[in-house]
Design goal:
Elements lengths: L1 E4 L8 H14 L4 E5 L5 H7 L10 H6 L16 E2 L6 E4 L4 H11 L5 H7 L6 E5 L6 H9 L2 E6 L3 H20 L5 E7 L7 H12 L14 H7 L4 H4 L4 H28 L1
Parallel strand pairs: 1-5, 1-6, 2-4, 2-5, 6-7
Antiparallel strand pairs: 3-4
């Protein structure tokens, strides 16, 4: 299963959500890969810590080899690094070099290369892809390669207006490039239960039959500590409220996936 965490707005928690859901999966014995396609490399730093400064290869090298027809590309496995705190959690790390390659990759129309690479990659039950805050080459490549996408959402009016555009963008990718792509769910992040506006916005989205997930993530200063120590919440504090929310969110996503597969099987029958 390949999931893309996608939002064109920055600061909505894409990297935090990607890494924590992947960490929950890995903690349950599922061999899991995080692909960091954001040149800011927040997911890379979160999961690898200081190791991120000494990497031999990054996603920039992975994409750079696609521009050289004379060289036989290295297998995707060569660019993958194991995390230090969980033997089941791996990262295809990012670097600032992704920005330098963007224009060349887009001009040469290498938009399907990520999907081709992941189709030949074996050994991972789940792949989580963190995307940059823009609908650029890397984000489109991820959506073309993915099975589904998750959209982090902050409860404000600006985010709500942008949400409809995001859903339209996914629909366009599905129509033109990836027929199986679906919006698996909208993740409410940094939810403030005591404030009236967030609850009102969430209810209105549900009334519009948008796929808002039931589990919402609270706002907590603990997540900053998690970033500082380069440890997802499941490893930093397994009993914390936010950790339990991430675990519940993961369970909900998995349950919904099984229900959709069962429904699809019944329709085929």
């Amino acid at each position: 299963m390949k999931r893309v965490v996608f939002n064109q707005k920055g600061g909505v928690g894409k990297s935090t959500i990607t890494c924590n859901l992947a960490a929950v999966a890995a903690s349950r014995g599922i061999r899991t890969l995080v692909i960091d396609l954001d040149a800011q490399a927040n997911s890379t730093r979160y999961l690898l810590g200081d190791q991120a400064d000494t990497l031999r290869y990054t996603a920039a090298d992975f994409f750079d080899q696609m521009l050289n027809f004379r060289l036989r590309p290295n297998p995707t496995e060569d660019f993958i690094v194991q995390s230090t705190f969980d033997e089941n959690l791996y990262v295809l790390p990012s670097s600032a070099g992704l920005d330098d390659l963007h224009g060349k990759l887009e001009a040469r129309y290498k938009i399907y290369k990520l999907r081709e690479a992941l189709d030949t990659l074996s050994g991972f039950e789940q792949i989580w892809i963190d995307t940059p805050p823009a609908l650029n080459y890397y984000t489109r490549s991820a959506l073309i390669a993915g099975d589904s996408c998750l959209i982090p959402f902050d409860c404000d009016d600006f985010s709500r207006r942008a949400l409809y555009t995001l859903i339209d963008n996914v629909a366009e990718i599905r129509t033109d490039h990836n027929a199986k792509l679906e919006v698996e769910g909208i993740i409410i992040n940094q939810f403030q239960a005591r404030a009236s506006l967030p609850g009102q916005i969430v209810q209105e989205l549900r009334d519009e039959n948008l796929p808002v997930l039931e589990t919402m993530l609270s706002s907590s200063v603990k997540i900053k500590e998690s970033h500082q120590f380069s440890l997802p919440m499941i490893h930093l504090d397994s009993r914390h409220k936010l950790t339990l929310e991430f675990s519940s969110l993961y369970d909900e996503i998995q349950k919904n996936q099984k229900s959709r597969r069962k429904s699809a099987g019944l329709k085929k029958a």
